[in-house]
Design brief:
It is a single chain. The protein is an alpha/beta fold. The protein has 3 helices and 8 strands. A 6-stranded mixed β-sheet has the order 2-3-4-1-5-6, with no helix packed on it. Strand 7 and strand 8 form a beta hairpin. It is globular and about 50 Å long.
Length: 147
């Protein structure tokens, strides 16, 4: 796939990785062979670039609604879906032709206090909508279930 960029924080214990010094934006870059892992707020990073570069693909996972309690007080599903779609569009809009974005996501069932599902957040649908809006084409989709 060429070079890869991962837009997420990682713990690296492998001695083959080198870590750059902290920059004022608190971005940390891990490098190994032809892979670069950028641990930074994705919106901050993406606002500083035009594209990821020729032949560069992105592997990322966006946080679940339960992981963002300060942004989505009381689990505001509509706002979360809008934020998620905006984030996916931002990731996709920086791809060059022939590059790929791989999203590792799981769906969420929003339940009331009785355990009844009142909404299913289908993240693959949100990413597909973002792909349509950014003129990207989905070439692969896989569902894995533990049920």
């Amino acid at each position: 796939m060429g070079d890869e960029i991962s837009l997420s924080a990682v713990d690296v214990d492998d001695e083959n990785f080198s870590v750059s010094p902290q920059t004022p934006s608190k971005k940390t870059v891990f490098s190994c062979d032809d892979r670069t892992v950028i641990a930074d707020d994705a919106f901050n990073y993406l606002s500083t670039i035009q594209t990821y570069g020729t032949g560069v693909s992105v592997f990322t996972s966006m946080p679940d609604i339960s992981e963002l309690p300060t942004l989505f007080h009381g689990y505001l599903v509509t706002e979360y879906k809008a934020w998620f779609t905006k984030a996916a569009k931002e990731v996709l809009s920086h791809l060059d032709v022939g590059s790929y974005a791989i999203f590792l996501q799981s769906d969420v069932r929003m339940m009331n206090s009785k355990g009844d599902t009142f909404e299913w957040i289908d993240k693959s649908h949100l990413i597909a909508c973002a792909a349509d809006d950014t003129q990207c084409t989905m070439v692969w989709h896989k569902l894995v279930s533990s049920f």
